[in-house]
Amino acid sequence: METLPPCPQCQSAFVYEDGALLICPECGHEWAKDGAGGSGGDAGDTGPAVRDSVGNVLADGDTVTVIKDLKVKGSSSIVKVGTKVKNIRLVDGDHDIDCTIPGIGAMGLKSEFVKKSS
After folding, report:
1. What does the pLDDT look like over 9-50, one tens digit per residue?
2. Does one domain contain both 32 and 68?
3. Domain named Protein YjdM N-terminal: which ranges (predicted)?
């Protein structure tokens, strides 16, 4: 049986495979199997990919659908389930998606409340 390399961030030995990725359950770091050092491929990739509620990887410019009614802080508005949001931008932070929602305006969303649309 093949032994997996330790996590490049926290050196944990409890790494597991998930498709084409290696994942550390202790720190959450993900990296490609072929770039076992974690520094292969993209120079701009600094951490785990942003994933939607069902595990699809999101990218800048994607279209997503809201999966839950969301209250807008500081307003009586609600973002309804099924609202399509086009041309998202991924950012670092708690709310990892910046977007413009039709009828409401610019705001930040958490990726756990959206699903990638085709």
Report:
1. 888 888 888 877 888 888 888 888 765 444 444 444 455 688
2. no
3. 3-32
Q: Structural domain tally of the chain? A: 2
Amino acid residing at 111? S
Give me the pLDDT at residue 7, please.
Answer: 84
What Rg value do the Cα atoms of the chain yield, rounded?
17
In this structure, what are the phi and psi dihedrals at residue 111, rounded to the nearest 5 degrees?
-65, -20
> Is residue 102 assigned to a domain?
yes
CB of 52 closer than 8 Å to CB of 62: no
CATH code for the domain of 77: 2.30.30.40
CA distances from 106 to 52, 85, 94, 109 (A): 19, 11, 16, 10
Domain holding 105, by residue range, is 63-116
Please tell me the predicted confidence (pLDDT) of residue 1.
54
pLDDT of residue 28: 81
Q: How many CA atoms lie within 13 A of 82 on its CB side?
A: 0
